[in-house]
Amino acid sequence: MNPIATIYMENGQKIVIELLPESAPNTVNSFIYIASAGLMDGHAIQRIVPGNWVDISYTGFGKKKAQYLIPCEFKLNPDIEPIDSHPGCVCMGGYGEDGLAGGEFFFPLRDCPEHKGVYPVFGRVLEGMEEIYRLEKVETVPVEDFPIAGVEVNTPVEPQVIRKVELELYGKTYPEPVRMSVQNLPEMWK
Questions:
Q1: pLDDT of residue 125
Q2: What whole-number distance in Å separates Cα of residue 98 and Cα of residue 2?
């Protein structure tokens, strides 16, 4: 059985995700590593772009232990065919040529063919799409000091907080992710 992650929101709702190690093994390992360490617990969702995606974090959850990059899944595992990104998927975010975020994932709100082979789909939502669509509609304000020009960043006016993330690994252990050795981490992490 594939591992299951349950994201419990502070408002009492939950989002249940089936992780897909056969589609993005290192990305799944990274998500499990960060979730197991409790690094998502108490985190307020940082970026919502209505009609596009709900982006959980762009600061590595504000925790040094979660601020690392992993290599592009499809360079690390070229034999894996990327999955199309669409509502109901869970995708790992990235920083272009610098690599993928260690744990900064997002929920697409539309079909995103431009993501295929770039932002790996590493999970699918089993329960809680109504919560994701609710998040899309919360009142937001633009982030004026975002360090990358031309990127739309809106943050919720009222914090939308992940209370905790629980994992069901069905007795299997997952290794720590393969990380990249990089000198310059993303500006948002500083």
A1: 98
A2: 29
List helix spans (H) across 8-60.
25-36
Question: Looking up tokens 């329960």, which residue turns up?
Answer: 127
Contact 25, 190 (CB under 8 A): no
DSSP reduced 3-state for 97: helix
Nearest CA to 83 out of 23, 143, 148 is that of: 23
Contact 123, 68 (CB under 8 A): no
**Mean pLDDT value across residues 69-94:** 94
Q: How far apart are CA 183 and CA 37, in angstroms?
A: 24
What residue spans define the domains of the chain?
A: 4-181
Which residues touch 81 (CB under 8 Å, ≥6 apart)? none
Burial of 172 (0-12, 13-18, 19+ CB in 10 A): exposed
Which residue is it, tokens 């040529």? Answer: 97
Question: Would the pLDDT of 183 be above 70?
Answer: no
Alpha helices in the chain (DSSP H): 25-36, 73-76, 129-136
CATH architecture, range 4-181? Beta Barrel (2.40)
Tokens read off for 141: 């304000």
